[in-house]
């Protein structure tokens, strides 16, 4: 998505950002200036610093490489003023992309190594957000506090208690609107954190849970059944469970889709359709999110433009492939090749499926096929056969 072209119509859209991490969204120029101010020199040049903050193309597909980008921001986000300035800069950048509802995501515990309390760490982010809100009264903004899985359920419960005091409904300014867990999924099932989320719910916080990004659909089930999730962060593996998809749709649970990040971490394999198609076909509500604007080298405009292009059927325009496909998977092959569905004025194409494919069909491939069929019929039904 790095090179996605953004139409003016997309730029003009009022947008909602529900899943954006503070640590992974610090503008590189701001981080660099802060490191210099504190006489910290992890690298010699800004270019080197930027390479360490932004996932490079040859690193894509590796969750470990992605997570490795979060070390340097922690060098400067241990101090109140720095956290405040970072949150303000991220919020300003979101407004510049016409985001009108913003929820930043933040784990305060890992920003207390220089003496800040958890409450002070939370307030620093909120102060930065509220600076921008004072200039943009139409901006709705809040903070989702994250407990880290690797810290265990007891720390998560303590954090939930600390967080409630900063809940938005207790203040006349932006405050904490939700509670979440993040970090390594394997070995840390959501059900372990049920007590912490019970505290958060009693305190009036919304519940969103990172689940199904690096683990199976059973973790999404637990997030819904045991933690009371109103939203699911990523949730990519949910598409492999038909009953789960029905549950998400029935209970109107929103999936926070982060397309760039999902491909970059390997949650969605390169060349395969993004689960957002399957979610929409199944009637599941989705939100287009950035996850980490700096690490993923993206923004709300580009994520929205990419999704809009995918959902439009990518258009049937000039020939971009000097090869003819004669295959039952014609549409999927073109998509997997990174391009668009191709048609020439004199071509007569027929997209077929066969019984032999049925045993291997998943909700994801079925949704992709149905989406392509509908797009082709709507635009080219008069000239193509079999759509």
Average residue-wise pLDDT: 86
Instruction: List the total number of helices.
Output: 16
CATH homologous superfamily descriptor of the largest domain: Metal-dependent hydrolases
Determine the structural class based on helices, strands and strand pairing. Answer: alpha/beta
Count all strands and give the number: 8
**Rounded to an integer, what's the Rg over CA atoms?**
22 Å
Short description:
The chain is an alpha/beta fold. Helix content is 41%, strand content 12%.
Describe the structure.
- By secondary structure, the protein is of the alpha/beta class.
- The protein has 2 domains: 8-311, Metal-dependent hydrolases (TIM Barrel), CATH 3.20.20; 313-387, no CATH class.
- Helices cover 41% and strands 12% of the residues.
- It contains 16 helices and 8 strands.
- It has helices spanning 8-12, 28-37, 46-53, 63-67, 73-76, 80-96, 118-135, 152-164, 194-202, 217-225, 242-250, 259-265, 276-281, 300-311, 330-336, 363-380, and strands at 15-21, 99-106, 140-148, 176-182, 206-211, 231-234, 254-257, 286-288.
- The chain has an 8-stranded parallel sheet.
- Strand 3 (140-148), helix 8 (152-164) and strand 4 form a beta-alpha-beta unit.
- Helix 8 runs parallel beside helix 9 (194-202).
Topology:
Layout: H1 8-12, E1 15-21, H2 28-37, H3 46-53, H4 63-67, H5 73-76, H6 80-96, E2 99-106, H7 118-135, E3 140-148, H8 152-164, E4 176-182, H9 194-202, E5 206-211, H10 217-225, E6 231-234, H11 242-250, E7 254-257, H12 259-265, H13 276-281, E8 286-288, H14 300-311, H15 330-336, H16 363-380
Parallel strand pairs: 1-2, 2-3, 3-4, 4-5, 5-6, 6-7, 7-8
Helix pairs in contact: 6-7, 8-9
């Amino acid at each position: 998505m790095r090179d996605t072209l953004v139409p003016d119509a997309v730029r003009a859209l009022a947008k909602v950002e529900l899943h954006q991490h503070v640590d992974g969204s610090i503008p590189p120029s701001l981080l660099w200036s802060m490191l210099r101010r504190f006489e910290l020199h992890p690298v010699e040049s800004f270019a080197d610093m930027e390479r360490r903050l932004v996932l490079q193309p040859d690193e894509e597909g590796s969750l470990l490489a992605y997570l490795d980008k979060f070390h340097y921001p922690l060098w400067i986000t241990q101090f109140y003023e720095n956290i405040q300035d970072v949150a303000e800069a991220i919020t300003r950048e979101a407004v510049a992309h016409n985001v009108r509802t913003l929820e930043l995501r933040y784990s305060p515990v890992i920003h207390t190594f220089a003496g800040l309390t958890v409450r002070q760490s939370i307030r620093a982010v909120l102060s930065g957000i509220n600076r921008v809100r004072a200039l943009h009264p139409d901006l709705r903004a809040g903070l989702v506090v994250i407990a880290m899985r690797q810290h265990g359920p007891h720390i998560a419960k303590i954090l939930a208690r600390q967080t409630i005091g900063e809940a938005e409904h207790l203040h006349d300014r932006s405050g904490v609107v939700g509670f979440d867990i993040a970090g390594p999924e394997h070995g840390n099932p959501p059900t372990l954190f049920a007590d912490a989320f019970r505290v958060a719910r009693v305190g009036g916080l919304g519940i969103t849970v990172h689940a199904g990004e690096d683990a199976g659909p059973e973790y999404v089930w637990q997030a819904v059944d045991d933690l009371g999730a109103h939203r699911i962060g990523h949730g990519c593996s949910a598409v492999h469970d038909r009953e789960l998809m029905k549950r998400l749709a029935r209970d109107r649970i929103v999936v926070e889709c982060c397309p760039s990040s999902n491909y970059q971490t390997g949650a969605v394999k390169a060349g395969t359709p993004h689960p957002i198609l399957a979610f929409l076909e199944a009637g599941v509500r989705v939100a287009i999110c950035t996850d980490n604007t700096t690490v993923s080298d993206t923004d709300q405009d580009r994520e929205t433009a990419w999704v809009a292009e995918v959902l439009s059927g990518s258009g049937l325009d000039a020939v971009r492939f000097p090869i003819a496909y004669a295959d039952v998977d014609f549409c999927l092959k073109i998509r997997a090749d990174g391009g668009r569905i191709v048609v020439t004025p004199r071509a007569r194409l027929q997209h077929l499926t066969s019984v032999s494919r049925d045993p291997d069909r998943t909700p994801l491939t079925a949704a992709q096929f149905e989406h392509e069929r509908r797009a082709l019929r709507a635009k080219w039904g008069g000239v193509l056969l079999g759509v």
